[in-house]
């Protein structure tokens, strides 16, 4: 069941964090601790276990924050802080599902456009929401968005 998938993820993250602690990997220990506390916080707010979509959105939000701060550090020439954020990003990406390639995304976009008989940019919202549903968080929204625009123009 989907529920057990999430428990497995959380257990996996906890295990990985303990391994990182034992081996003295501070960066990995800290980012996984941050992730676990965000997952726990969401669970407490919800008063029940979180589902896969919530799990993914929490990780994606954290990834987005790290990307933004990494960019800011890079622009400011703070290379040691930039490196740290990038290391944390690489660690978190291991807990996300494999993102579809551009070609796989294009195939999905074409399929959804066919199914919805979309034929103009006014159908964009309908097409995008179906793509996101069908892909289970495995699509890069920016890429999908661009492809949908190109095909519907």
Number of strands: 0
Kindly name the structural category: mainly alpha
What are the secondary-structure elements, in order, as H or E?
HHHHHHH
Mean pLDDT: 88
Which residues sit in consecutive blocks of at least 5 with pLDDT less than 50?
none
Tally of helical runs: 7
Strand content: under 5%
Helix and strand topology:
Elements: H1 2-23, H2 26-46, H3 52-75, H4 79-93, H5 102-116, H6 124-135, H7 141-152
Task: Give structural notes.
It is a single chain. This protein has 153 residues and is mainly alpha-helical. Helices cover 79% and strands 0% of the residues. It has helices at 2-23, 26-46, 52-75, 79-93, 102-116, 124-135, 141-152. The model has no long low-confidence stretch (mean pLDDT 88).
Task: Identify the notable features of this structure and list them briefly.
single chain; 153 residues; mainly alpha; 7 helices; 79% helix
Tell me briefly what this model is.
The protein is mainly alpha-helical. 79% of the residues lie in helices and 0% in strands.
């Amino acid at each position: 069941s989907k529920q057990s998938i999430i428990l497995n993820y959380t257990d996996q993250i906890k295990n990985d964090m303990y391994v990182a602690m034992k081996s003295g990997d501070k960066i990995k220990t800290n980012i996984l601790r941050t992730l676990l506390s965000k997952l726990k916080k969401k669970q407490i707010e919800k008063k029940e276990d979180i589902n896969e979509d919530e799990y993914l959105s929490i990780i994606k939000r954290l990834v987005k924050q790290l990307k933004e701060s990494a960019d800011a550090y890079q622009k400011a020439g703070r290379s040691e802080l930039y490196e740290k954020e990038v290391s944390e990003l690489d660690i978190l990406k291991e807990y996300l599902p494999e993102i579809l390639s551009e070609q796989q995304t294009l195939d999905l976009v074409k399929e959804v456009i066919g199914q919805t008989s979309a034929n103009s940019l006014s159908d964009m919202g309908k097409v995008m929401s179906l793509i996101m549903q069908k892909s289970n968080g495995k699509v890069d929204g920016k890429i999908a968005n661009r492809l949908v625009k190109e095909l519907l123009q």
